[in-house]
Design a protein that fits this description.
Length: 434
């Protein structure tokens, strides 16, 4: 589906209830599916990625009921009650599902094979397979056990815990090893070189798991049971809210209220950077829900200026680089982003996609090996109307839509990939257009 977005001439206004967090939704259905009871999960993200995880858990024995109000009820099969799937598990476009499930299934006494879409076939899985093999797992895949399709062969004996210093600050890798660690003999310690998101740790605690957390290191021992909480509320996804934060900042005469946004500190790098750029962001009504902090966020138009940031903050805003690049195009002065090499192995090579497609609006972005330099065009830039590729990447498609709405319009090819994380994105854009 191609999508045409017109310029938002008069600004954006209104309230947006931010859909459920993708990372938390994946984890909620996985841990509930391994629990000893039924968990009522509200605000679950009913988008393609999380539905792939739900289907995968059903193939392993969990029971899932989808309710009309968007909530789901997950009845677990118990931590040791999963059964051999009688088919290939399809992770679709989801790196999170695949990496976490490889960790969860590596210790099981049955065979599992995974597939996924064309983009997932290109994404590196060696980073989870190497440490899991060190724990005693037997995992094979294409290209020297690095790429899909991947098969987990029942391990000869129980996995054993290891201490693992992750080469990249990756929540997916950390979570994969913690899930495997629940079944291993002895303790598994994962040391993170950065501050990757901690949703797995928070949720494991909510299921009664005893974790030892010491700075950037997490230790888990064998777990006998996951105690099902009756309900679990998924916070709104700050990575989805980010599109409206930037849109309202750069489109003149805008004032939007983003409701129910998860503001876990491992995810709020976008707020820190936008504020440093001069954005007008107010956070209200901050409180805890389901072990995660949430808040409402008001964003009004402002004049932005360029900033420089790098590796340190990257895990806290890794998915927001494309939309930050949009903000930077509307800023005064240059923005330099470094330490972002991980973007080359996301749903697409996002550094290349941003540089190639955004330059069609104004030739103002230089691509670095590990980042971008964006030469800001100021508050009211002259941008061309462009026809752009989404690269089937949801975050590229949404960033292009905001760029078109703030500039002189855009036509996006294969725009419907927004269904991966934000199926109502285009409706919301129309609803808040003044
Ligand atoms: C995610 C972690 C991040 C992020 C991805 C979701 C997660 O990936 O980019 O969209 O749910 O754990 P890495 O941990 O691999 O950086």
């Amino acid at each position: 589906m191609n999508k045409v977005i017109e310029r938002a001439e008069r600004g954006l206004e209104g309230e947006v209830l931010i859909p459920g967090d993708k990372s938390v939704s994946h984890r909620s259905v996985m841990l509930s599916g391994l629990s000893n009871g039924t968990v009522h999960i509200t605000h679950f993200l009913r988008a393609e990625d999380c539905l792939s995880t739900a289907r995968g858990m059903e193939m392993l024995g969990a029971k899932i009921k989808h309710n009309d109000d968007g909530s789901i009820d997950v009845t677990g099969c118990g931590i040791h009650g999963m059964m051999e799937p009688c088919g290939i598990i399809d992770a679709g476009d989801s790196g999170t599902m695949l990496r976490l499930m490889i960790g969860m299934l590596a210790p099981q006494p049955f065979l599992t094979t995974f597939t996924g879409d064309a983009a997932l076939y290109r994404r590196p899985m060696g980073r989870v397979i190497v440490p899991l093999t060190e724990m005693g797992a037997q995992i094979v895949g294409r290209d020297g056990n690095r790429l899909l399709p991947i098969t987990i062969i029942p391990a000869k004996k129980k996995l054993h815990g290891i201490t693992y210093k992750m080469p990249v600050a990756s929540a997916q890798l950390k979570s994969s090893l913690l899930l495997a660690g629940m079944y291993a003999e002895g303790e598994t310690t994962v040391i993170d070189p950065g501050m990757s998101r901690d949703h797995t740790e928070r949720m494991m605690k909510a299921f009664g798991v005893n974790l030892k957390i010491d700075g950037n290191s997490v230790t888990i021992g064998a777990v006998d049971e996951l105690k099902a909480p009756e309900t679990m509320a998924v916070p709104g996804d700050i990575s989805s809210a980010a599109f409206w934060m930037v849109a309202a900042s750069i489109i003149e005469n805008s004032d939007v209220l983003l409701k129910n946004v998860g503001v876990n500190v491992t995810r709020t790098g976008i707020i820190d950077i936008l504020r440093e750029m001069g954005a007008d962001i107010t956070i209200f009504d901050k409180h805890e829900s389901g072990g995660e902090p949430i808040a409402d966020i008001r964003v009004r138009s402002s004049r932005l200026h360029g900033v420089s940031f790098g590796k340190e903050i990257m895990p806290r805003l890794i998915d927001e680089i494309p939309i930050i690049a949009v903000a930077a195009m509307f800023a005064d002065g240059d923005t330099t982003i470094t330490g972002a090499g991980e973007l080359r192995v996301k749903e697409t090579d996002r550094l290349h996609a941003v540089a190639t497609e955004f330059n069609k609006f104004a030739d103002c972005i230089d691509e670095l090996d590990d980042g971008l330099v964006i030469h800001g065009q100021g508050k009211s830039p002259r941008l061309s109307h462009a026809t752009c590729k989404s690269y089937d990447d949801h975050r590229i498609s949404m960033s292009l839509a905001i760029l078109g709405a703030a500039g002189d319009g855009v036509e996006i090819e294969h725009a419907d990939c927004v269904n991966i994380s934000y199926p109502t994105f285009f409706d919301t854009l129309e609803n808040i257009r003044k």
